[in-house]
Each structure stands twice: as structure tokens, then as C-alpha cells.
Specification:
The chain has 173 residues and is of the alpha/beta class. 31% of the residues lie in helices and 29% in strands. It contains 6 helices and 7 strands, in the order E-E-H-E-E-H-E-H-H-E-H-E-H. Strands 1, 2, 3, 4, 5, 6 and 7 form a 7-stranded mixed beta sheet that branches. It is globular, with a radius of gyration of 15 Å. The structure holds guanosine-5'-triphosphate and magnesium ion. Magnesium ion binds next to helix 1.
């Protein structure tokens, strides 16, 4: 019911969630436009971008939604999650507090969307090697415990950004 089927097209709604400044908007900018903003401002309200992808030789459209991590800038939560079939739950590997918030984001996701929304835990800013506060093993083990996919990315140097989105869309498809 949550996917639109029109001739050859599939449209999947994917939501980006996670604390403020973990890099959600830059992951989307990197993925959709191959851009990066070193000094981006906090997102206000909701933005979305539709990105074409090819999965198993079929064209798929991912409609990726992005909102602020901070409560006061967020749009109505239920509308944000409505119809989502995939989620990227992002934390910043250089800020442990953002990793500690993962449980809270999972609760919110499960409160407002289907239990089986395909979710990947994303440890972003893997380029910040000297500033790392969360090990790869910790990320992996939390993801395993919660039944999530796991990947580390860098919106700055592009590593694994497309793979993060593709993992989710492939699994939905
Ligand atoms: P909100 O909209 O407030 O929820 O934040 P956000 O999660 O969208 O974060 P945003 O993409 O705006 O990035 C916050 C800051 O982190 C910006 O200064 C970015 O340039 C920086 N940033 C994002 N991704 C990376 C990354 O992979 N590596 C590094 N080094 N910095 C990054
Ligand atoms: Mg943002």
C-alpha cells in the first residue's frame, strides 16, 4: 500500500532522522547533487528530493525526506513519517551524544511508522579519524541488536554515501 506503481515507476519514501548537525542534509546533498556544504545551517521545516536509482535494471525513485534534528525546528512528526518505507538513522562518529540518541530516534520511528520500515544505522563523518568517539564495532553491534543495517559514511569525502541509500532501497525493492 505504501508504494506507488505506475507503469515502470516505483516511488519509495525514505526519511532521514538523527540529532542536529550529524550531517543528514549533507548526505542528501551529496547523494542527490554531489554537493557538500562546509557551513550548512540547520534545516528548518521539511525538505525533500526525488532521486532516480536503478535497482535490478528497474528504475526506482527514492523520495528522500529531510528535517531538523532539533525539536523546535521540526515539522509535524506524524506527517514526516507517514508512508515511509525506509529510514536512514544518522549519528556522528565524532560525537558520542548523537550515538546515545539512537534509541530515542528508533522509538520515534516505530511510534510513527510501520514496524518493518527498512532502517540503516549510519555513522557519518568517517573522515574525522582523529576525532572519533564511537568505534565501528560499537555501531555494528548496536545495529545488530536492533536488527538494522549498518554503514559508516562521509558526506565530505563521499565514501559509502550512495551505498547507504542503495542498501535501503534494494531491501525495500
Ligand atoms: P540539522 O538540519 O540541524 O538536523 O543538521 P543535519 O543533520 O542536517 O547536519 P548538516 O548536514 O547540516 O551538517 C552539519 C555540519 O556537519 C555541517 O557543518 C557540515 O558541513 C558538517 N558535515 C556533514 N557531513 C560531514 C562529514 O561527513 N564530514 C565532516 N567532516 N563534516 C560533515
Ligand atoms: Mg539538516
Amino acid at each position: 500500500p505504501q508504494q506507488t506503481h505506475q507503469t515502470e515507476d516505483y516511488l519509495f519514501k525514505i526519511v532521514l532522522i538523527g540529532d542536529s548537525a550529524v550531517g543528514k542534509s549533507n548526505l542528501l546533498a551529496r547523494f542527490a547533487r554531489d554537493e557538500f556544504y562546509p557551513n550548512s545551517k540547520s534545516t528548518i521545516g521539511v525538505e525533500f528530493q526525488t532521486q532516480k536509482m536503478v535497482i535490478n535494471r528497474k528504475e526506482v525513485k527514492a523520495q528522500i525526506w529531510d528535517t531538523a534534528g532539533q525539536e523546535r525546528f521540526r515539522a509535524v512528526t506524524s506527517a514526516y513519517y507517514r508512508g515511509a518505507v525506509g529510514a536512514l538513522l544518522v549519528y556522528d562518529i565524532s560525537r558520542r551524544l548523537t550515538f546515545d540518541s539512537v534509541g530515542r530516534w528508533l522509538n520515534e520511528l516505530h511510534t510513527h511508522s510501520d514496524m518493518n520500515v527498512v532502517t540503516i544505522l549510519v555513522g557519518n563523518k568517517s573522515d574525522l579519524k582523529d576525532g572519533r568517539e564511537v568505534t565501528t564495532a560499537e555501531g555494528k553491534s548496536l545495529a545488530e541488536a536492533q536488527g538494522l543495517f549498518f554503514i559508516e559514511t562521509s558526506a565530505l569525502d563521499s565514501s559509502n554515501v550512495a551505498a547507504a541509500f542503495q542498501t535501503v532501497v534494494k531491501e525495500i525493492f
